[in-house]
Write a structure and sequence with these properties.
With 217 residues, the chain is an alpha/beta fold. The chain has 9 helices and 6 strands. Helix 8 links the parallel strand 4 (164-168) and strand 5 (183-187). The chain binds 6-O-phosphono-beta-D-glucopyranose (BG6) and magnesium ion.
């Protein structure tokens, strides 16, 4: 029995992928490190520090803990500046309608985002009030693909993991949801999100009845 829907934020609720990309690029350009949209795709769903580790591995870099902390802080300062300018216009097409429709059907709704900025972002785009719970990166030690953030969300909702459906746009997120024992709806490319139960290109394409029919309920 499906009781709750758990939403990743970046790339599912709001299109922040480009903002994260630019926040890294200011630093990588200055430092002369290679960084492009292909590397950025590998960062989807990863925590700040795990993202930096990917950039370091790609560039064969070794940085001290202190240097890594300074870079992460700078990346976040860059990103936080973009949040102040965010509004309802940053919602992905169809996501608000989907959330309202699920809520009207009586399902519990949660966010489970790697981003420690999730509460701030959701407030800026004006939809934080729709959720029964917001789990963010500050609530767990291990980021996606570990299942921790999704298990935290289920626990906060008081719903068993097998009764939750996750919406995810990142491979690491689909893996995390699977590891948590949840069903997964992918948002994006079917070829990339092949371990999801079903995939829609965008939230606006989600047909709730068709989606529910995939879960044998
Ligand atoms: C995730 C994004 O939601 O949040 C990642 O997909 C990002 O790209 C991560 O690195 C961490 O976000 P923040 O804002 O806490 O650094
Ligand atoms: Mg995402």
């Amino acid at each position: 029995m499906i009781e709750a829907f758990v939403f990743d934020m970046d790339g599912v609720i709001t299109d922040t992928v480009e903002y994260h990309c630019r926040s890294w690029q200011v630093i990588t350009d200055r430092e002369g490190w290679e960084f492009d949209s292909t590397i950025n795709k590998k960062l989807l769903g990863l925590t700040r520090v795990d993202s930096l580790k990917q950039i370091m591995a790609h560039n064969n870099l070794r940085l001290s803990k202190e240097e890594m902390a300074a870079i992460c802080k700078e990346k976040n300062d860059n990103f936080v500046k973009t949040i102040a300018a965010m509004s309802e216009a940053d919602l992905l097409p169809g996501i608000k309608e989907l959330l309202v429709a699920l809520k009207n059907r009586g399902y519990k709704l949660s966010v489970a985002s790697a981003s420690k900025n999730a509460p701030l972002v959701l407030n800026s785009i004006g939809i934080d009030g729709l959720f029964d719970n917001i789990s963010d990166g500050s609530h767990v030690k291990q980021g996606k693909p570990a299942p921790d953030i999704f298990l935290h969300a289920a626990n906060q909702l008081g719903v068993r993991p097998e009764n939750c459906v996750v919406f995810e746009d990142a491979v690491a997120g689909v893996e995390a949801a699977r590891a948590a024992g949840m069903r997964v709806v992918g948002i994006g490319d079917l070829g990339v999100l092949k371990h999801a139960d079903c995939v829609y290109a965008s939230p606006k394409d989600v047909d709730i009845d068709e989606m529910l029919s995939k879960f044998d309920i």
